[in-house]
Design a protein that fits this description.
It contains six helices and 25 strands. It has 414 residues and is of the alpha+beta class.
Length: 414
């Protein structure tokens, strides 16, 4: 009886030992499987499929109930912020790349402007005495006038009295008085031809005629027939159209590029395909306080009078080229509050965000002073999605650094 009990106890002990050994072996196998995976590749950690910020050291479920996805060591670059994307996903994102180039950049400024009268040809017409506009020969703004054409007739008691005094001085045979009376008529704006008429006809005219001094158009008309005018009244202004100004606006960051004498081109929407050639005539000394732009004046010949004031124009200014510099497409640049970045394509589906120092912009290119070398491949489309993923990886790697450093600190330092 005792022998049977002893045999039974031995069998039970052997069974318990087998179960224990089996569980230990199974646990060790599972741990090895979790660290290396079925493919034998080293697993660094596990992440949630929908949230890369959710990381765990072993397999399991995400907060959304989805299986965690392993991240393998051979998928992560040694440089923080580098990400690896499957080629299919890269293709679906429409990622495009371009090479960083080196060479001079043309400081070409493309802007807009408005056509104005050439103010050097602008004539303002005023009277030198008080009076009334009795007859107005030009009645609308924009009317063309020729040199010597009648503009208006003025009735002024002051001018009538001055004429009568001149005639009286002539009859007195007093040369000094006659000369003083003539000078007064000239000072009051009476023309030489009108004084000659006085000498011949010996009668004062009730109306004094005012004639155009140059060809042009009526740029401004400030009176009507019968209105009372004073020397302060701007009766009208006459401007020529054979020369015009284009007032262009240049951004503040490009203000240093512009100087008088530079070549300029103008295009108009209503004459597509035609370009007018001109030169920068003057750079205004101050910026517009509202638009933060610098005004530039460009002079153009306009013999055919196609360029008309207040037209909208597209303006291109050609400044001097820069020294050779590394430059990339402007669309590749990701502008940040304090740091500008581009996304480098490292090959084999690997990408990394790279901070850069930006130089000038010229057309579709932007100069890179630091951070990129000639020949580097830069992402020009889809870079914002890659940059956000790269920043997440870099942030996570920085979060791991203190823990890793603590593990390697010597005991004496703890």
């Amino acid at each position: 009886m005792r022998t049977e009990i002893t045999i039974a106890a031995v069998l039970i002990a052997a069974l318990l030992a087998g179960i224990t050994i089996g569980r230990w072996t199974s646990s060790d196998s599972e741990m090895n499987m979790g660290a290396t995976g079925t493919t034998g590749r080293d697993i660094l950690y596990w992440v949630a499929p929908m949230d890369p910020n959710y990381r765990r050291d072993e397999a399991g479920k995400s907060p959304m109930g989805m299986d965690l996805v392993p991240v393998y060591a051979d998928e992560v670059d040694a440089v923080p912020g580098t990400v690896k994307i499957d080629p299919t996903i890269v293709n679906n994102l429409g990622v495009r790349t371009a090479l960083a180039e080196i060479g001079p950049l043309s400081r070409r400024i493309e802007t807009v402007g408005n056509i104005n009268y050439d103010e050097d040809t602008l004539l303002h017409v005023h009277t030198r005495v008080d009076g009334w506009i009795e007859k107005l020969a030009t009645t609308a703004t924009g009317d063309p006038v020729k040199k010597g054409q009648l503009l208006f007739e003025l009735y002024s008691p002051t001018l009538v009295n001055a004429q009568q005094e001149y005639l009286a001085a002539r009859r007195s045979n007093n040369s000094v008085l006659r000369s003083a009376s003539r000078d007064r008529l000239v000072a009051l704006g009476v023309t030489t031809s009108e004084i000659t008429r006085l000498d011949k006809e010996r009668t004062a005219s009730q109306r004094v005629r005012v004639y155009a001094e140059a060809d042009g158009v009526i740029a401004h008309l400030g009176v009507r027939e019968g209105i009372f005018v004073t020397p302060a009244t701007e009766v009208m202004s006459v401007a020529r159209l054979d020369r015009v100004w284009v007032i262009a606006e240049v951004f503040e960051r490009q203000a240093a590029w512009v100087e008088p004498g530079q070549h300029a081109e103008v295009e108009l929407d209503y004459v597509p395909g035609k370009r007018w050639q001109g030169t920068v005539d003057y750079v205004y000394p101050e910026l517009d306080a509202k638009t933060r732009t610098l005004k530039v004046r460009i002079r153009f010949d306009n013999e055919d009078e196609v360029l008309r004031p207040n037209m909208f124009a597209r303006v291109t200014l050609f400044a001097a080229e820069t020294e050779p510099v590394v430059h990339v497409p402007r669309e590749a640049l990701i502008r940040g509050g304090s740091v500008n970045r581009v996304v480098l394509a490292l090959g084999e589906g690997r990408f990394r965000a790279q901070s850069v120092e930006v130089g000038i912009e010229s057309g579709s290119r932007v100069a890179i002073l630091e951070g990129v070398s000639a020949g580097d491949r830069i992402v020009t489309s889809g870079q914002f999605l890659i940059d956000s993923e790269s920043n997440i990886e870099a942030a996570l790697s920085r979060m791991d650094e203190p823990a890793d450093q603590n593990e390697h600190q010597p005991e004496s330092a703890q």
